[in-house]
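Write out the 3D structure for:
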Amino acid sequence: MKRGLVLTSVLAMALAVTACEKKEKPANNADGATNNAATADGGTADTGIKTDKGVDATAKVIKIGTLNDESGPAAAIGKPYAVGKRLMAEVVNAGDSGLLPEGWKVELVERDHGYNPQKSVQAYNEIKDDVLYIGTSFGTPNTLPLLKMLERDTMVAQPASLSSKMAESKYTPPAGPAYYFEAMRALDFAVKNGGGADKIKVGIVYQQDDYGKDGIYGLEQAAEAAKVEVVSKQTIAAGQKDFAAAVTALKEAGATHVLLTVLPSATGPILGTAAQLKYMPVWIGNTPAWTDKFFSPDVIPSAVFANFYVVTGLPYWGEKVPGMDKFLEAHKKYGKDSAPDSYTLMSYVQGLQGLAAAKAAIEAGDITREGFVAELNKLDKFDAGGLIQPINLTKVPYVVSTKTRILKPDFEKKSWEVAGDFQDPSGYKAPAE
């Protein structure tokens, strides 16, 4: 498989200086272990735990970085995503969570790149020496420029992205099935929903980046296997405002089912434009095409979502699955009045993945970056306490899971109906071992 707050330079320099001023001065240890006396085997004399960057074994603190979008075109996702990691930290630091060994806490080192790849690189360089790993690297186009640096620094960056490009790197483990699999599953649903491959015409609107490429690639592969015609392929840019040309092209092509590999900032205007043009195909959005703010009619009239579905491998808020009650209790206690949002849940789930590896590394006596990566790559059938379908991080390129499902928004309940259960896409063939 092949497979966006703009900061001024002065402010960026100020942030960098502030970060340097606040950084704790490490002990002069030959092996790079911080805040502990070094031992001959690279461990620490007083804790027995080997460390390098972002960990204070004496104070029992792990520093976790986040590179997010809370001001750019994906802020509708980025803001609740930030809440998820903050919630995770609150739960751990309150104690008795079992997510880390007793007494251990986490500290978040947060930056906002505004969905701008250059700002993402700048922010990474500001914090890379102060953290054990990046708990959120938001967006495919903002994570791709980091790949070589992550490898150089032995730094894991958990991507807020399900791009198959992320899955190709050992240091960017996905939290669920790739957009590629979502797109293929969307085609399966379109065929069933439309009454057969010969009765539908498929279109796609996709973002001009590697997120979008994943959508078009998966759709085309599935369409070829199912012998379905893709009659219109429309590209857009992140932050684009006018979608009349794209929607008109889809309508003129007669597309009956349209995949949206876009951000929520595009989904609402696309559906609104289509409604104005009296064009109502079946819309199927990749996971990032939706935001729970759409449940409010003050954002966009609910009627425009009459034919809208989401394809995803992730859970939704309040779903009756193991672990949900515990999460909801934590959100009620530590969520600081944040609204229910599926991206908060998704971010929290991803955070549990990182903590599972960190806990194992501490218990193994090696929470260096290499030790963290080693434990991460032992995670198999990881289900975040029952919140997600089991995923596998033992093989790179990662195929953490291939099962996704189709959800339809229920605006009265502000929740979801399952329109298609979890299953593998019919057009996918696993590579030979």
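Residues 179-312+403-423 form a domain with the Rossmann fold fold (CATH 3.40.50.2300).
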